[in-house]
Amino acid sequence: MASALFFTCLTCSMFLLTIPYYVATQKVTLSLYYDSLSTSCATFIVKNLAKIFYVDLITILNLRLVPWSDAYANKSNNSTAFCQHRPDGCKLNSLEACAIDVMHDVNKHFALIYCIEFLAIEGRHKEWETCIASVHWDCLRNPL
Question: A Gene Ontology MF term for this entry (predicted)?
């Protein structure tokens, strides 16, 4: 039976699902719900989560990233979203969610997310287009 543990990093939550040790062929699912412009979440992604790629833990993990902001829809028309970090937060959460959906390779979409979150830590999140270019994502063929 799987067990669930919850870890909280200020406003950034991580849901860890562990699979029993005797199921050696299955990967452990690690789900991270985060907000793209949250300093604590960006710091966790850049300084901690990235380590799973460096020490090759990604080979035993099914990493599930979920850009999830403190957002709500306008009840009058349901087409306008209001985000904690204003339009920039909504845009970057949507961009990252789209990248995850389009780029099925975790190494590729994590590289983009890492780049955006690194810029967010430095207060340069408006330069996100440089991250798109760095991962060679063809936005014309796979638009946002």
Answer: oxidoreductase activity, acting on a sulfur group of donors, disulfide as acceptor
